[in-house]
Structure formats: structure tokens, C-alpha cells
Amino acid sequence: MIRHATNPRVDWPAKVEQVGLTYHSHPHGPYWDESACYELAADEVAALETAANTLHHLCIEAAEAVIQRGWWDRLGIPATAIPSILQSWERDDFSVYGRFDFAFDSASPPKLLEYNADTPTALVEAAVGQWFWLQDTRPEADQFNSLHERLIAAWQRWGGKALHFSAIKNHTEDEQTVLYLRDTAEQAGVATQFIHVEDIGWNGADFVDLTDAPIPQWFKLYPWEWLWHEEFGQHLKLDRTRFIEPTWKMLLSNKGLLPILWELFPGHPNLLPAYETAERLGGNFVKKPKLSREGANVSLVQSGQVCEEVGGDYGAEGHVYQAIAPLPEFAGNHPVFGVWVVDHEAAGLGIREDTRRITGNLSRFVPHFFKPPQS
Amino acid sequence: MKRSQQIRLVLLGGLSGAALAGSAPTANAQLSSQGYALHGNAFTNDHYLPHAGYYHAPYGAWFPHRYNHFDPQQQKYFHGGQWSPQPHQSFTNISEPLPQAVAAAVAAQPRPPVQHSTTRSGFGGTSHSWGGIGS
């Protein structure tokens, strides 16, 4: 693995905006950062791909264990959500995507940091932005990225004819993420519509759109744990709408699953030791709220002292404690490897890096490439 | 090859943000309810019926745990609504549910409240304390 310093394309903002990455910068600097890129070896790509495929199936097994053993409290899942989760699980409701975040130094196997299984973002940059960057800068090279055609294939396998997509208002990244997913769904023959989450209506029997038409199938870029706690959450148990991501993803998009995975598969090479209390990790661990996003309320503790932490409003749902992963460092930057899963199979990679060891909402997306093995 | 061969975008980059919201619906198919009748149908062990549970064919009824579910803490097996030190053994792995079991299952199904006006803004409140969803 090599981190290259590179010259950004002269007109890179216009180029990435043309393909939907309109949120490439924020007030603190660029979010899309092509002043660097990562070169991976083919076997490193294979290690990440294999780790994601393996862990996805382990997570499914762990979810089954949660159901069988009634470990709902370990995930902080509200009792009202349990019947819907069971229904969704038993129906095997369709899931389109998720993203594993790995620590990976190429000397040891990729280590799972978390599974963003419900509302992952950074999709447009991984699927589209870095693909066009590759065409412009290294057309002879390869990239771990078949996200676009895999998403289209996933929607085709889903087979639905119509789907409402939702994101919250006034958040460009979320709206563009949903627009891209709509794009792939349309190419698969699905008739799509958009409605903001805040505009969803309830008519006494169904969730409805702005024309008061029922929403039988709904892709929501909005976390399940929020839906359940809001005013309309009481209607979810009526099970009138099929959701993507489905309700059963609440079992996976929860850091409470990390200690369960370690308990069920102790010593697995792609897992870090994780527990519901800190004692067994001594004074060195990462404390994570079960439901936090973008690194919020995550603390890095070394020798009993908090070395890094990120603020936020999470934590009331409880915490888990995970061993510290070996994060590689390149010129003061720590990359985290986000491997996308589409329709239950690994489909691509996005790398975000930060000078801090906790990846947050200001961490930069850096493109990657690899050289295919000589045949 | 692991990269996409070709990426064609039909919406992204071509739609303005304003064009995102609420186009005319092209389909509004109603969800069916359960999609099958409980009377006169046979069900296999562990068939899951929402809000009723898992079907136990020898008992002709739904229960909260799977047939012969084992609880390692109690060291007992669940069947027919009871915990037992031994798993239940039966040749019956498919049956029609008893009338009282059907009645109980139907009664357990949630009913939408009776009201006809549309209310909105029941979702999205949590996000307002956040800058976005991303994870």
C-alpha cells in the first residue's frame, strides 16, 4: 500500500460536480481530496473483499443469534420494534447496501471497526467520483469498484416496479446520495419518486406522499432508531410499508453487535476484541456509543487516559468497548477502508483519511487504484 | 477486473436540487395484507406469522418461540407454549391451525386507527439536531 501525493486535476471541482459530487468541500477545506491517492496491491484488494464477504455472513449469523437468544437489550432495540424486525427477518426483506469500515495496515488482516448497514453515505464519491478520476488520471489502472453495475443488478433482482426515495431537507450530501441511488434504480427499470422525510404523511392507514398516494415501498436515508422514536414511529408496527434498508438491518447497524461478534467468533482474524465493559481491555480501548454516526461521542483511551474524543449527542443507548486497531499512518494521515456491500456481496472500496484516529464528518475522501496482476 | 466498465448517469448531474421533490406518482399499488388465509391452509413448523409467532404444527397454533427452541440458560425446549426438559417429538410437521388459534392470531393483528385526514411532519424531527445522516 502506497500513498501518493498527486496534482489535482486543474478543474477538479467542476469535474466532480458534473457527476453529482456537489458537496466536495466544506468550510474547513476539501472533503473530496485528490491531492493524494492510495495505490493498493491486488492481494490487498482481495483481503478487503474477502473480509467484507466473510463478515457480512458472520453478521447475519450474529443477528440470528440475537433473535434466537432474545438479546434485544444488548443492542438497545426498543421493544416496539421487535415484531417488525422479526417480520422483516422472516420475510428476508430486500437489502440493497451497507458499508464495512476496516482498519487495515496490510501486514495483518483487515479489522472491523463498524458496519454501517442502515444509512451509509460516501457512496457517490466511491461509486462515481473516483471512477471518473481514474479514467482521467490512470486509465490503465484498476479500482476496487463495481458499485454502479452491482447496484443496478441489485434493483433488478429486487424486482419492484416503483419506489419512493427519501432524505432529509437541506442536506446536499444526503439528497445527492439518494439521487444517485434513484439513478441506478431507474436504470434497472424501477419508477422512482422523491419525497423529503419531513413531508411524509400518515392518512390513518398508510404512509403517503405529497399527493396522498400510499407509499408501499420506501427507501429511506434516515436511521431506523430515529424513525422508531419519532411521532410516526407508532405506525411502523402496522407493517403497511416495505422499507429499504429493511427493519432487520437494525440488528447489524448497531455497534452493540461488535461484542456479540467477538463472543460468537472469538479470535476471528477480521475482528477486534470487543466487550460491553472496558475491564477486559485494560487501559487501552475505543469507547463507542452503540448508535453513533460519523464518529460522534467516540473516545480513544490509552493507558487509561482519553487521547482523542469527538463530541455529540449519542450515548444514552449505551456503549461498547473495542480494542484499538492498528491504523497505518501515511504522512500523518490515517486511512479507514470502507468496503461496500451490495445485495450481500462486496462491491467496492472508498478510503477516507484523517490526521486524527477517529474518522469523523470532516475526514477526507481520497481515491484509490491498484495495478491488476500481470497475466 | 474490479472496476466498473462504464458508468452512465441518467439523473445524477442532470437534475437540479429543486427537481428532486415530489413528481407525479407513477404507481401506487397498495400492499396486500397477509396475502394468505389462515382458515383452510396448512402450515409447517416455524412458519412465522407477524404478531402471532411461530407455528408449531403438532399443536396447530402459533407461539412466541420456534418449535423446540432451546434455551441454554434454562436448558429447556419450547413447544406448544410450554418449556420442557426434552424436545418434542412428532411426525406432524405440517397441519391446519385450530380454530381458536386462528382466532387468536387474527385478534393479534394490529388494526390501523380509524381516521381519514393526512397529517405530516411525523418523521424527521431528530435530524434537526444533526447536520445529516451519513455514517
Query: What's the end-to-end separation of chain A, in Å?
Result: 21 Å
Which class best fits the helix and strand makeup of chain A? alpha+beta
Which stretches of chain B are low in confidence, meaning pLDDT under 50 for 5 or more residues running? 14-35
N→C terminal distance of chain B: 28 Å
Average the pLDDT over all residues of chain B and give the rounded result: 75
Beta strands of chain B, count: 9
How many beta strands in the DSSP annotation of chain A?
21
Strand order of the largest sheet of chain B: 2-3-4
C-alpha Rg of chain B (nearest Å): 24 Å
Q: What's the alpha carbon Rg of chain A, rounded to whole Å?
A: 20 Å
Overall 3D geometry of chain A?
Answer: globular
Sheet with most strands of chain B: 3 strands, antiparallel
Quaternary structure of the protein: heterodimer
Strand content of chain A: 15-25%
Helical segment tally of chain B? 1
Produce the secondary structure layout.
The complex is a heterodimer of chains A (375) and B (135).
Chain A lengths: L1 E4 L6 H7 L6 E2 L2 E2 L5 E5 L1 H28 L2 H4 L6 H10 L5 E7 L7 E6 L6 H15 L9 H12 L3 E5 L5 H16 L3 E4 L6 E2 L4 E2 L8 E4 L3 H6 L3 H4 L5 E3 L12 H8 L9 E2 L9 E5 L9 E4 L2 E5 L9 E4 L11 E9 L2 E10 L9 E3 L1 E3 L5
Helix pairs in contact in A: 2-10, 6-7
Chain B lengths: L42 E2 L3 E2 L3 E4 L4 E3 L5 E3 L4 E4 L2 E3 L9 E2 L3 H10 L10 E2 L15
Antiparallel strand pairs in B: 1-8, 2-3, 3-4, 5-6, 6-7
Q: What would you say this structure looks like, in words?
A:
The complex is a heterodimer of chains A (375) and B (135). With 375 residues, chain A is an alpha+beta fold. Helix content of chain A is 29%, strand content 24%. Chain A contains ten helices and 21 strands. In chain A, the strands form six sheets. Chain A has a five-stranded antiparallel sheet. A five-stranded antiparallel sheet of chain A has the order 13-17-14-15-16, covered by helices on one side. Chain A has a four-stranded parallel sheet with strand order 8-7-11-12, with helices on one face. In chain A, a hairpin with a 4-residue loop joins β9 and β10. Chain A starts with a strand and ends in a 5-residue tail after the last strand. Chain B is mainly β. In chain B, a hairpin with a 4-residue loop joins β3 and β4. The interface between A and B is large, with 96 and 56 residues. β9 of chain A pairs antiparallel with β9 of chain B.
